[in-house]
Write a structure and sequence with these properties.
Blueprint (H helix, E strand, L loop, with lengths): L10 E6 L5 H14 L4 E5 L6 H10 L7 H13 L2 H9 L3 E5 L2 H10 L4 H5 L10 E6 L2 H6 L11 H14 L5 E4 L4 H21 L9
Parallel strand pairs: 1-3, 1-4, 2-3, 4-5
Helix pairs in contact: 1-9, 2-3, 3-5, 5-8
The structure holds 3'-deoxythymidine-5'-monophosphate.
């Protein structure tokens, strides 16, 4: 049954540790889908361009100190301020490739020791992704890639904790890709999964909300 009115873009999220390749793969996926003639945009969280985003950016650069709960809620607020635009884009048929989302929010804050249910609460009601791609890489391998930019969180010991949090968060709906394989192999696997999701949403699929 093909309900044309339900046709929309797909909400596709990439998650993973720092240096897992999310940003590079996002831009490859963007070009790939554009090449196929799809309407698509690349987004990322935190979105450092908003007022809240600037507070987050200064925190990440260690230029300001904030209580762990406070920064958690700012990351969440940063998604809420983009929520309605996100819905508008999706309903108008634009697919969004999003580099980090609520799962980063919960994984990073719970890695600091905050209660996981408390971390999830402010995310309830945000749009649920149609596809979560987890770029899986051992923290040690990610660290070997170098290029940790010196921002807060970019340390092996902390990344190990984040990896553990992601493991708790992951459910059967996530698609996991071995991110330490050659870049082109990872790209190939991602293309297939993404195209599948875009096609499903194009045919018609209702939007749902986190966490369900
Ligand atoms: P980038 O290096 O990808 O810009 O991320 N983070 C991110 C959180 O702690 N909570 C969140 O909700 C999000 C989206 C992950 C900057 C850092 O911010 C962390 C790395």
């Amino acid at each position: 049954n093909n309900h044309k009115s339900d046709s929309r873009g797909a909400l596709i999220v990439l998650e993973g540790l720092d240096r897992s390749g999310k940003t590079s793969q996002s831009s490859r996926l963007l070009s790939y889908l554009e090449g196929l003639g799809h309407s698509v945009e690349s987004w990322r969280f935190p979105d450092r361009n908003t007022g809240v985003g600037q507070m987050i950016s200064s925190y990440l650069a260690n230029e300001s100190q904030l209580d762990d709960h406070t920064i958690h809620l700012l990351f969440s607020a940063n998604r809420w301020e983009k929520r309605s635009l996100m819905e508008t884009k999706l309903r108008s048929g634009t697919t969004l490739i999003v580099d980090r989302y609520s799962f980063s929010g919960v994984a990073f804050s719970s890695a600091k020791g905050l209660d996981i249910e408390w971390c999830k609460a402010p995310e309830i009601g945000l749009l649920a992704p149609d596809l979560v791609l987890y770029l899986d890489i051992p923290p040690e391998k990610a660290a070997e890639r170098g290029g940790y930019g010196g921002e807060r969180y970019e340390q092996l010991e902390f990344q190990r904790k984040v990896a553990h949090s992601y493991q708790i968060l992951r459910d059967g709906s996530w698609k996991t890709v071995n991110a330490w394989l050659p870049f082109d192999d990872v790209e190939k696997q991602l293309r297939e999964m993404v195209l599948d999701s875009v096609t499903t949403c194009q045919k018609g699929k209702s939007l749902s909300k986190l966490w369900s």
